[in-house]
Amino acid sequence: MTWWDSLAELLSSPLMQRALVAAVLVGAAAPVVGTFLVQRRLALMGDGIGHVALTGVAVGWLVGSWAAASPADAFAVPGAVVAAVVGSVVIELVRERGRTSGDLALAIMFYGGIAGGVLLIKVAGGTNANLMSYLFGSIATVSTADLWWTVALAALVLTVGVGLRWVLFAVSHDEEFARASGLPVRLVSMTVATLAALTVTIAMRVVGLLLVSALMIVPVAVAQLYARSFGRTMALASGLGVVVSVVGLTLTWWNDVPPGATIVVLAIAVYAVGALVRPLVHRHRPEDDPHPEMSDDVLVPATAGEDCPPATAAPRR
Amino acid sequence: MLVTSSSPAPAAGSRTTDAPAAPAIDARDVHVTLGGRPIVRGVDLSVPAGQVLALLGANGSGKSTLVRSLLGVVPVASGSVHLLGAPLGPRVPWDRVGYVPQRMAAGGGIPATALEVVGSGLLHGRRLLPPRDRRARARAALETLGVGHLLHRRVQELSGGQQQRVLIARALVRDPRLLVLDEPTSGIDLPTQEAFVRTVASLRDAGTTVLVILHEIGPFAPLIDRAVVLRHGRVVHDGAPPQARGEHGSAEHDHTHPHADPVPPSEGPDLTLGVTP
Question: Which of A99, A224, B116, B233 could form a disulfide with B41 if both were Cys (CB 3.0 to 4.6 A apart)?
Answer without folding.
Answer: B233
